[in-house]
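User: Predict the structure for this protein chain, please.
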Amino acid sequence: MKVTFISLKLSMGLLLLLGWLSGTETALAQVIVLPDQPTVLEKTAAETLKEELYRISGEMLPVVSEREAPKGRRAPFRFYVGATRLAHAVCDSFCREAGEWKEDEILILPGKGGMVLTGHPTRGPLYAVNTLIEEGYGVRWWTSTEADYPSRGILPVPPIARSYAPPLMIREASILDAYDADFRVRLRGNAVSRIRWATETPQFIPAEKGGCHRLLFFEGRKSAFHSFFEILPPKEHFDAHPEWYSMIGEERVAKQLCLTNKEMEAAFIQETLRLLRAHPEVDFISISQNDWRGACECEACRAVEDACGGVASGPVVHFVNHVAEAVEREFPHVTVETFAYAYTKEAPQNVRPRQNVLIRLCDIECPFSLPLESADHPASEGFRKNLADWTALAPGQVFVWDYVTDFSNSLLPHPNLLNLGPNIRLFAQSGAIGVFEQGDTCSGAGELAPLRLWLISHLLWDPSADDRALIDEFVRGYYGEAAAEGLFRYIALVNETASAGNCPVRCYHGDCSGWMTPATIVSAARAMEDAVEAAAAAGEPYLSRVRREALSTRHAILLHWQECRAFCEKQQIPWTWGETRQEAARAWISDCEAFGVRTTRETTAEEAPARFREQCEKLLTPIE
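Assistant: Here is the predicted structure, written as structure tokens:
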């Protein structure tokens, strides 16, 4: 984590106020102090601190108001949570008014008599507590159900000092385990949106835990995005108003909307406002193109494109600005977002998004086996230019949609792990204010999914963090020291092989063809089997965790059975994956069921069982 030491900023008066210590203070008695009139969030933060310290030490600390807090030289050590009077004194020393906190900013200040844990009132005190527990006391929340707690008889107060505001104000890791609201809070994710391709419904973070940014959900498509036809469905309007929809050639068709049609715009605005009135809980709404091509080619839309540099995003920004203007009058707290995606990814000229409009730039065309910041690939070069153009056009209004799994087969090796850190740093350094990381929301056991979620979430909170060190920590801590060598070998084989070979692997590959040779598949599978064998010696929970990850390499072997077996025979390498593919497939399917695999590819909850049966049947089919 990035550390900001703040003692140099403190005035001498504050040093005297806190009785500042440069080292660790061992407190024999401790108490948690809340403001005299605490908010619901501050109460939650105090209870969280109380519960977490109890799990570490077995000691249940009392929670008192500031007016009741013991004072004097013999007073116990006090954890001041939230906007206490002491916290206000600290803020005054920084010449910061209460309203000057940046979103999700935290402040942690230890002293001889106490520690201040505060920040932005929406989530800051709770994030400060979680940061103290994780960084100071060494607790590791690996997954929504698995954590490591150090066991201590007493609670030495760690000398941790933080003054930090995350550069990415909107952080969402859309990965199945993050759908648990409590885990999302611990990972400091602050946004929840529902997508069509998921086998669970994400939990929204309740207000007492800071709440979250929420996008309006459209029931028709079961998604928060691609909303043109969710707001004006062709089945309801096309017959009466074909002119509201795209002209392709000489014909009106239901592909996209005709964004220069004023009658359509008025109807669209009216329906948008109706939806927002029905959903006062949301603070974002996506006004965005459908998930296919078909931009209107009518004379008026073409004229707007020409005036905006000849790009299709011009009519979209003009249209969304008109909708956003109407939204702002009635819902000033709601942000209107739209896509820079597919045919609208290039930034326009001579028009810019209104201040309540957010541009969600997507990188779906890029090869994720290569770092976006340096890949010599047309799609990567185009994305870098688009990112620079949009952030120059609309500084502080650009949000990146990034793709971090293989949507065709999330149980296969996917060579992007070592590029996640550089890519998130690129987004933050370029001026993006938020990132949506679309990962495995379907399978339940995707390749290295626990590691990916933990890594991505820590990087979204602090893009400057050392991603390689985070990977090392998670592998050793979650999968166990015994299995670490085999897993590191597997990670290097999958990721470094693709990068070194300059293999452009996107987010849709049904097998390993084109970027993993039989030699690489076999070597990666052998590395994973070595990790499983080492984990077996270490015992549970490590064995189950590593065996689950071995599903990916076993699946790769099944999909490339003939070429891998021929390679092993030629090289005289022992074959350890079953006498027949059917036998190996039955064992793999059994383990998938044991580990809760729902499907291997992008799908909906309703379609997942049939999709998984279909994949299993293919694997059980004898090879000709």
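Residues 518-538 form the longest helix (21 residues).
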